[in-house]
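INTERNAL TRANSFER SHEET
From: sequence group
To: structure group
Subject: UPF0056 membrane protein

Please process the attached sequence and return the structure record in the designated field. Keep the field labels unchanged so the import script can parse them.
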Amino acid sequence: MIEYLKYFILIYGGLFAITNPIGAVPVFLSVTRDLGWKERREIATKTAITVVITLLVFALIGQWIFKFFGSSIDAFAIAGGILLFRMAMEMLSGNISTVKISREETEEFSGEAVTLEEVAIIPLAIPLLSGPGAITTVMLYTARSHQIFEKALIVASIVAVGLTSWLILYFSSKIQERLGRLGIKVMTRMMGLILASMAMQMIINGIRGAFGL
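Return from structure group:
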C-alpha cells in the first residue's frame, strides 16, 4: 500500500510541477481582468474539467499513438525529456514556458472579446496547463504501467491535479495578493528545478532502454 502511495505522490508531484497552476495565476488574472467573480469561477471550473479530460484522453490512447506512428517508448521518453528540459530552463528564469503559451497569445486573448468557453479551453486549459509536457508525461506513465492499479493511480493523479488547478485558479486573486509576483516567480523556479530533474531522469531512462544499458 505504501508503494502505491509513493507512486501516486510521484505522478501527482510531477504533473503538478509540469502544469504549474501557480505560475498560471498571472495569466489567468490577465485574461479575466474585465470579468466578475462568478465568471472567473465558471472559467476556473471549465478550465479544470478540460485539463482532466485532455490528460485522461491522452493517457488512455497513448499506447495506440505509439503503435500508429511506430515510435518506441524509449524514443518518446528521450524526446519528451528534451521538451521538458527546455520548459524547465524557461521556468528556472521565472517565466511561463513558451512551449505552453507565448506572450503574444496571452495579449491576444486578454485584449479581445471572447467567450468564456474560449478562454477556459484556449489558452488556459490548452496549452497553458495541459500542454505538450503534461501530455507527454501522462502518455509515458501509462505506457510504462503494467498493473490495473497503477493505471488507476495515474487517473487519480490527473483528477487530483485538475482539482488542485481549480482551487488555485478559484483563489487566484488571493494567491497573488499573498505571494505577489515575486513569490509566484520563486514558486515557478522551484517547479522548474523539479521539472529539470524529471526531464533528465526521463532522458536517462530512455537512453538505457534504447541501448539496453
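Handover comment: The chain has one domain: 2-211. The chain has a mean pLDDT of 87.
Transfer complete.
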